[in-house]
């Protein structure tokens, strides 16, 4: 039902209808959970040889972000992150890593703040641990 029916002399005014309100409300509800940003503390490799921070955004099944890591001798290691979550499992990849070493990360996602999975780099599998430290 119109709040400003044409017969009320509301010419030139915005006409708000019940269907418009329902559409607006459903858009707000749907967009509220679409994307979430998180900060992850990441440790990978034997004895935590590589460690640092991932800033990730999870939108639907897609995960993207950037990594600021330190390699074994303290050299910076930076890359973008791209991947997806399917059937509760995250598969993410290094994109344009500064050390030119591609890796794939695999972990079972859960509600826990701590995740343990594997990093596959150059054909070798290494331990990979994540602590979800904050939501941005």
Please explain how this structure is put together:
This protein has 136 residues and is mainly β. It is 11% helix and 54% strand. The chain has an eight-stranded antiparallel beta barrel. β7 and β8 (124-135) form a beta hairpin. The chain starts with 17 loop residues before the first helix and ends with a strand.
Helices and strands in order:
Layout: H1 18-32, E1 35-44, E2 50-59, E3 62-70, E4 76-86, E5 89-95, E6 103-108, E7 114-121, E8 124-135
Antiparallel strand pairs: 1-2, 1-8, 2-3, 3-4, 4-5, 5-6, 6-7, 7-8
H/E topology pattern: HEEEEEEEE
Residue runs with pLDDT of under 50 for 5 or more positions? 19-32
Q: Which strand order do you get reading across the main beta sheet?
A: 1-2-3-4-5-6-7-8
Strand content: over 45%
Q: Please give the radius of gyration in angstroms.
A: 23 Å
Mean pLDDT: 82
* Total beta strand runs: 8
**Major sheet attributes:** 8 strands, antiparallel, barrel
Morphology: globular
Q: N- to C-terminal separation?
A: 40 Å
Tally of individual helices:
1
What fraction, in percent, of the residue positions are helical? 10-25%
Global structural class? mainly beta
Q: What's the gist of this structure?
A:
The protein is mainly beta and 136 residues long. It contains 1 helix and 8 strands, in the order αββββββββ.
Structural features:
54% strand, single chain, eight-stranded antiparallel barrel, mainly beta, 136 residues, globular, 1 helix, 8 strands
